[in-house]
Write a structure and sequence with these properties.
Elements (H helix, E strand, L loop, with lengths): L4 E7 L5 E10 L5 E7 L4 E6 L5 E6 L5 E7 L3
Antiparallel strand pairs: 1-2, 2-3, 3-4, 4-5, 5-6
Bound molecules: zinc ion.
């Protein structure tokens, strides 16, 4: 199952206002994967796991990792 869509004029992690695309994917190992790709090259990847934990990784267009975290269910 996929729920994909493009967007226009959102603020990327680097601060620029750009267009981009969202991807959402569901599978057995990782419950939900949400990815956002910005036109400037920034991207954001979020995984939701069965136990309710969420991992989030935001990478700027130059490859610099801005956020890389795992939030537990509690
Ligand atoms: Zn950027």
């Amino acid at each position: 199952m996929n729920a994909n869509g493009s967007f226009i004029g959102l603020q990327a992690p680097c601060g620029q206002i750009v267009d981009g695309e969202n991807y959402e994917d569901h599978d057995d190992e990782v419950v939900v994967t949400r990815e956002t790709f910005y036109a400037c090259g920034c991207r954001s990847i979020q995984h939701e796991y069965h136990d309710g934990a969420v991992s989030r990784r935001i990478v700027r267009h130059d490859g610099h990792v801005l956020i890389d975290e795992l939030l537990s269910a509690e």
